[in-house]
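Dear support,

I submitted the protein below through the web form. The confirmation email said the job was done, but the results page showed an empty box. After a refresh the structure appeared. I'm attaching both so you can tell me whether what I see now is the final result or a partial one.
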Amino acid sequence: MKRINVIRNSTVITPSKTIKNGVVIFEDEKIIAVGRESSIKMPKRARIIDALGKIVVPGFIDIHVHGGRGRDVMEGSYEAINELAKFVAGHGTTAFFPTTVSASHTDLLKAVKAVKAAMERGTEGAEVLGIHLEGPYINPEKRGAHDAEYVRLPSLDEIRELLEASNHTIKIVTLAPEVKGSIELITELRKFGIVASVGHSNATYGEVVDAIKHGVTHAVHTFNEMGGLHHREPGVVGAVLVQDELTAELISDNIHVHPAAMKLLIRTKGTNKVVLVTDAIQAAGMPDGEYKVGKKEVIVRNGVCRLESGELAGSTLTMDGAVRNVMKSVGLPLRTAIKMATINPALAINIDKNKGSLEPGKDADIIIIDKEVNVYVTIVKGKIVHRI
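What the results page shows now:
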C-alpha cells in the first residue's frame, strides 16, 4: 500500500524559487508535488511532517568521502559503509560516494566489493550511489596522504577487474593525466560512462586541456595537490579555473583552502560549476587523536588532520559544515550554498534526473534545516533516517 507524506509549515527551496508557506508531498520514494500550500490540493489520509517553520531543501550529495565516526571505506566491510552512511545522514547527506585511497590491488578489490554489498543491501542512513576511486593512478610528486608504495601507472587490466568485482559501480576515477597510460585509461572510462577526474596531478595546462578533449570532466579538491597557477604556466589550477568543461570540488573547511581562494574559485567558475565535498576521513565526528587514511597514520589536533610530516591528510568536515562555511567565509546566500551541495554534484556525476533538487518525479531525498544549516530531519528516498 502506497503511503503519502506531506511536509508543511516550511520555506521550500527549489531550483527556480524560494516558496514561503511551502509543502513537499512525496509518495513512497518519489516526490509528487512541490509548491505553496494554498495552491496545492492536499491529499487525504496523508502523514503530516510539520517543519515547524524551518527550511526544506534537497539532501546533500557528497561525492568524495573516505570515512567518519571511526570507520574507513578501506576497511572493506559492509559494516564500515553502513556506519558511515548513518553518520553522514545525521549531517544532512542523503547520498554519497564512498571513496578509496591508493592501495594494493587486493585491498582495492575488498573495498569495492564492500561498497557493492552496501548498494545491494541498502544502508540505515544515506544511500550509496557508487564508488569514487581516488588513485592509485596519480603523480607521486602530488600524492599528498596517499601511500607512495601503492601509487602506480594506470592499468586497463586492473581497472577492468575492479569494474567487474564492483558490478560496474565505480562511477568516478581520480587520476593524473600527465602520467603514462592515463589518456588510454580516460578513454576506457568514457566507454563505461565513468567520470574521469583530474587530481593529485602536476600536469601542465596543455596536458589538462588534452585530457579534457579525451573525456576528463571533473577536478578533485581544487587547489590541493595540484600544480599551482603561474602566469606563464597556468598548470592544473589554471585549467580548472578557466576550462568550462570541468566542475571543481571544494573542501570548504577553511583549512584546505583560504577563504580568498574559495572566493576566487567561485567567482571564476561561477556558482553552477563548484561542488562542495568533505574529503572526510574516519576522524570526522570523533575527538582529536590518532587515526588512519588507508594504512597511513594521521594525527588530528583541533579537528585538523595531518601526517607526521605536517601535510594535510583529509578532513573532519561534514556537508552541513561545508555549506555553513561557504556562507560565512565567502558570503554566499543559503540558496547558492545549498546548490553547491545538491544539484551541482548531481549534475557533475550525471544523476540529476533523480537527485539534487525538490521536483516532482525525483527521489524523496529531503532535509529540514534552519538558517544556520543545523539539520533536524533527514529523509532518504521517502524514509526518515535521522531526526532530532
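Response: this is the final, complete result; the empty box was a page-load delay. The chain has ten helices and 22 strands.
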